[in-house]
Design goal:
Chain lengths: 575, 212
């Protein structure tokens, strides 16, 4: 049993079961630590000292953990008194340093544990919700089995905490009984066979301790038993009882630790499952180069979920690939690929016909062009604050860049796609803002209710698909114009750099769009559950990532086209 | 949007014969008297039903200008059907048909169904090419023939749909190898319903990969 793993630091009882187990565990560890500490003391009454302190501390810890509000001093000294009364010959001794440390730490820990106990009752409902919504289809079966186990445990433990607390405060003498009930309850709810003997022994102990007059001593009844072996060795009359107690407490402890291990593991699983967006959110916040990977993983999970979720109409509706195709993005990509492939073949054939200096020169030229295609860097962090972006800068930037290509092509359709996207955002945003500003507009209220997260998601995917399709179209048109007309006054290398710049502008715009739409999703869906909202947000980011990939791929397809353009223009100039 | 087959069409012919207008009429059911010159290729798509089967027509509307010829030729490959269009009010567009036909036959698969279209049939008063001439040319070269009007929409649907029927018949006859996408035919998603939900974002990639 890895007891040393369960130190105060490591075990922060996250719910009553854990706290319970910690109690049992601490009964053992305290005993050990006190033994260890004891060696520092030059005292002759080792065992009695240990027994005394041990019981006091255990009681103390126990009480603290279960949320009793006794002050340490109130507890400790009566306990010591009790031990003195029993043994009759324990020298009065100022509390050893170790005890101070212990009580200090207990005092420190006590409030936190108490406060933590309350919110602990919160996780279970959340956990219960996640399988309940059944949106976590992928792990639904797994989760539900797990949670039924934990639900049962948590539920009864929650009531245990309360009942014990009330028992302890109301009738101090029945604490022992309360505990035995607790153990029964714990073990039934955890599925650990309940040792009936145990409760029997416990009751006996209660009786034995019933002789002790001090109320505080009876409140420590149980912890004192935990140290019963030490106590027993000091006092022969209790030895038989204490050995029984020792064995029972061992059973409880080992059972408790097993349960703790089990519950701890399950809790982690449940927490992880309770927030499926956690991993993605974390990944997205980092915005590292693995973003697309994170998104893809998230999307895969989402797809598996939606595959089981028959009612997922939104997913069907907001199908990026279909929308991208509807905007003729696929056709333009296909056409661009054809041109790229044919250009590549042309370049190869030209290279085979050349030799000597001509070949070296051309190779160098082509190498330079290639470089501008590999140097393209897109830093997502550079994206300007979307708030100040009015869309004109996007069109202007594109138009200026396209002019530098010296081919007749405009950013008109891209500008329109961009405008459409922002019109969609405004349509969704204005109602909510108007709602805040003007209360009278009942028609606005209607629009607010009409705009669901699914609508926003659909708009987002549509906008991304449209802007991406137009971007591909733009590149396709550039390719056609490059092949169609000989470009004067600009080199292919310069054109390559301009195209890289255009790619960055386009990808930035995609990023801005995705951010705007996810912000919109978060606003509109502020009342939605994470299971509803997170997949939608993830979906938008994923398709934005897809969009950027499409655009960058299309940009790469332009390389052979520019090479052909370069070959043709140099051939023209040489004539 | 599930379809049993996807047919790729190309529209070819001299500049100004009304290729883009035919496409616009077919896809959007509207007529635009002044149309920008097509650069390279533009696209249109529409779903039709033949023999109870949903068929998606993916139409590549090519530029008619001579200067774009070398580029547009690249797009012929992988077309299942072609609409070869001339203008009944301009004899030169009819005279160029042989060149267009040679080009098309050379750069596409031999089984491609070609529909000869005499457009602008609404301009009867300015007719330069008789209907019989068109029919004769079609017969001679093994084409289907129709006179259409993109303006009045006369025969536009029929032109596109009859071509599709011909392709469909060829599939039934086993002339077309539908598994070879170079023939301009794609089989729709087998389990359309599940696929559309399953593929999600993959859809684009799958389709994108399909044309590589």
């Amino acid at each position: 049993m890895p007891k040393n793993a369960f130190t105060n630091d490591k075990i922060t009882p996250t719910h009553p079961v854990m706290a319970r187990c910690v109690v049992f565990h601490l009964l053992l560890t305290k005993k050990r630590s006190t033994r260890k500490n004891k060696s520092d003391q030059a005292s002759g009454q080792k065992s009695s000292d240990v027994a005394c302190r041990g019981s006091a501390q255990s009681a103390d810890t126990h009480n603290t953990l279960i949320g009793l509000c006794y002050k340490m001093s109130d507890n400790e000294h009566p306990a010591t008194d009790m031990q003195e009364n029993i043994k009759g010959q324990i020298p009065k001794e100022s509390p050893p340093p170790s005890q101070d440390v212990q009580s200090d730490s207990s005092a420190d820990v006590a409030p936190t544990r108490k406060t933590r106990k309350r919110p602990e009752n919160k996780p279970p409902p959340e956990v219960q919700e996640s399988p309940g919504t059944a949106s976590v289809a992928e792990n639904a079966s797994k989760a539900s089995t797990q949670t039924t186990v934990t639900q049962g445990g948590w539920g009864s433990w929650g009531s245990w905490g309360k009942s014990l607390l009330s028992t302890a405060t109301a009738t101090v003498t029945t604490v022992g009984q309360g505990l035995s009930q607790v153990i029964e309850k714990a073990e039934t709810s955890l599925g650990i066979p309940s040792p009936t003997e145990l409760s029997g022994q416990m009751e006996k102990e209660d009786d034995a301790e019933g002789t002790i007059p001090s109320p505080s001593s009876s409140s420590e009844g149980k912890p004192a038993e935990g140290d019963g072996n030490v106590l027993g060795s000091a006092m022969g009359m209790l030895s038989s009882l204490s050995s029984v107690v020792q064995s029972t407490s061992k059973t409880v402890i080992s059972g408790g630790l097993d349960a703790l291990e089990f519950i701890g593991k399950k809790t982690m699983d449940v927490i992880a499952e309770g927030d499926p967006g956690f991993k993605k959110t974390k990944g997205l916040m980092n915005r590292t180069s693995t973003l697309s990977q994170v998104l893809r993983e998230a999307k895969e999970r989402e797809e598996q979920q939606t595959a089981k979720d028959v009612t997922s109409e939104t997913e069907k509706k907001a199908h990026y690939g279909m929308l991208f195709d509807e905007f003729q993005g696929l056709s333009h990509l296909e056409a661009l690929e054809i041109l790229s492939r044919e250009s590549e073949a042309k370049v190869k054939s030209v290279l085979t016909t050349l030799s000597g200096e001509e070949l070296t020169t051309l190779r160098d030229d082509l190498e330079q062009i290639k470089e501008s295609f590999s140097l393209m860097e897109f830093d997502d962090e550079e994206v300007d604050d979307p708030q100040v972006d009015d869309g004109e800068s996007f069109v202007k930037e594109l138009t200026d860049a396209l002019k530098k290509l010296h081919i007749s092509t405009t950013a008109e359709r891209l500008g329109k796609a961009r405008k459409n996207a922002f019109d969609r955002i405004m349509d969704m945003k204005i109602p909510s803002e108007a709602k805040q500003q003007q209360e009278d507009g009942s028609e606005h209220e209607a629009t607010v209710t009409r705009c669901t997260v699914e609508d926003v998601h659909f708009s987002a995917i549509t906008s991304l698909a449209e802007l991406t399709a137009r971007s591909i179209e733009q590149f396709h048109k550039v390719a056609e114009m490059l092949l169609h007309t000989s470009t004067d006054g600009v080199t292919a290398l310069e054109q390559a750099k301009v195209l890289a710049q255009i790619t960055v502008v386009l990808c930035k715009e995609i990023s801005v769009l995705s951010k705007k739409f996810t912000a919109c999703l978060a606003t509109v869906g502020s009342n939605e559950k994470g299971e509803v909202l997170n997949p939608l947000i993830t979906g938008v980011f994923l398709e934005a990532s897809n969009s950027a990939s499409y655009i960058q791929d299309a940009f790469q397809l332009l390389m052979p086209v520019l090479e052909v353009s370069h070959i043709e223009s140099t051939a023209d100039s040489s004539h | 949007m599930a379809y049993a087959y996807l047919f790729k069409y190309i529209i070819i012919g001299d500049t100004g014969v009304g290729k883009s207008c035919l496409l616009l009429q077919f896809t959007d059911k509207r007529f635009q008297p002044v149309h920008d010159l097509t650069i390279g290729v533009e696209f249109g798509a529409r779903m039709i039903t033949i023999d109870g089967k949903q068929i998606k027509l993916q139409i590549w509307d090519t530029a008619g200008q001579e200067s774009f010829r070398s580029i547009t030729r690249s797009y012929y490959r992988g077309a299942a059907g072609a609409l070869l269009v001339y203008d009944i009010t301009r004899r030169d567009t009819f005279n160029h048909l042989t060149t267009w036909l040679e080009d098309a036959r050379q750069h596409s698969n031999s089984n491609m169904v070609i529909m000869l279209i005499g457009n602008k049939s609404d301009l009867e008063s300015r007719r330069e090419v008789k209907k019989e001439e068109g029919e004769a040319f079609a017969r001679e070269h093994g084409l289907i023939f129709m006179e259409t009007s993109a303006k009045t929409a006369s025969n536009v649907e029929e032109a596109f749909i009859n071509t599709a029927k011909e392709i469909y018949e060829k599939i039934q006859e086993g002339v077309f190898d539908i598994n070879n996408e170079a023939n301009g035919i794609k089989i729709g998603p087998q389990h359309a319903a599940t696929n559309s939900t399953l593929s999600g974002g993959q859809g684009g990639q799958q389709a994108g990969g399909g044309c590589c």
